[in-house]
Amino acid sequence: MAQIGGIELANVTKQFGDTLAIDSVSMIVPPGTYCCLLGPSGCGKTTLLRMIAGHDEPTAGDVLIDGQSVLGLPPAKRGTAMMFQSYALFPHLTCLDNVAFNLKVRGVAKAERRKQAHEMLDRVQMDGFADRVPAELSGGQQQRIALARSLITNPKVLLLDEPLSALDEFLRLQMRGNLRQMQKEFGITFVHVTHTQMEAIAVAELVIVMDHGQIDQADSARGVYDTPHTTYVARFIGGQNVLGGKVVRVESGAALLEDARGNRFTVPSGDPAPDTGETRYLSIRRDWIEMEKLADPSATHSDAVNSVVGKVWMTEYQGTWVKVSITLPDGEEFVANINDGTFFANPAREGDTVVARWSAEAVHSLEHRESSFDTSRGGMQA
């Protein structure tokens, strides 16, 4: 099946009065891609979605679908369909008539639109519920009806505004898999807005991380998780510890950093190499950390390179691993995800002083950027 629905935003700006919601954003979503717009509340992701849909027009810039500008076109003429967070189903109509409604608006004859609606209900495994009204459905079933209603017009692009937020955890996991499967089946572009990091990583081929009305990083799911570009992305996505320090020396392609507590870290020096005294930042994945309890409860730093010392303030059992949250002497949080067998062989308790260590190969360099969301206690990390 040919893939359709390529999207391009060219220097798009959106202003609401004195508020700059989108600040000169340019991005490309290749046709047939499952894309997630990810970021905290107020970052501009829903505003971008609405401008693609045609519910808002940009103050400046251009929106193109399959290479053609859609500025000034109504939503129905853009080749897009939007599935709202609330689903917006008509309570008095049956599932069949809800799905057929958009075809009715377009003047499709009753027999034909009901035929197409039955076919679409069958594709989302809901044809057996055709005669029910929305109040007789579960949340997951209502979502399937809303999805079928959006897809029945054969859009090039399906826009989804927080489509899983109203579901419980079990249904959320089930439906995100269903969305990914349907996107592959239909071969069209999905643009999915969410503030949930693991949801974006689970479904998307392209994750666009936003803040302050700008794109901070556009990358594959693995790219934003494993190799974040900035301190903001590393903290927001989660799974990473972020540290910084001043350059003490540079040799053999690595810079030695020292923080205010006297801890020392190595980080790739890059090209050009940093100057002595320059501040650099790094991240280390939580699951690449080793941890050991210390006999001295008053210890505040480690003499070993690539290690920190702190006190355990919380442990959370996650089945195959244990999340250990460690408070460093300056109040910052450092997290280690420890294999459950390793952890329970010598478990750390709340209040224990521990040292966390990692290898030089585990370190990833970051650009520093302030964010608009609260990063205390890990911010919005999972």
CATH fold-level name of the largest domain: Rossmann fold
What is the terminal separation in angstroms?
37 Å
What characterizes the major β-sheet?
A: 6 strands, mixed
Strand order of the largest sheet: 6-7-8-3-9-10
Number of strands: 20
CATH architecture of the largest domain: 3-Layer(aba) Sandwich
With helices defined by DSSP (H or I, 4 residues minimum), what is the helix count? 9
What is the level 1 CATH name of the largest domain?
Alpha Beta
Looking at this structure, what is the CATH superfamily of the largest domain?
A: P-loop containing nucleotide triphosphate hydrolases
Principal-axes shape call: elongated
Estimated radius of gyration: 25 Å
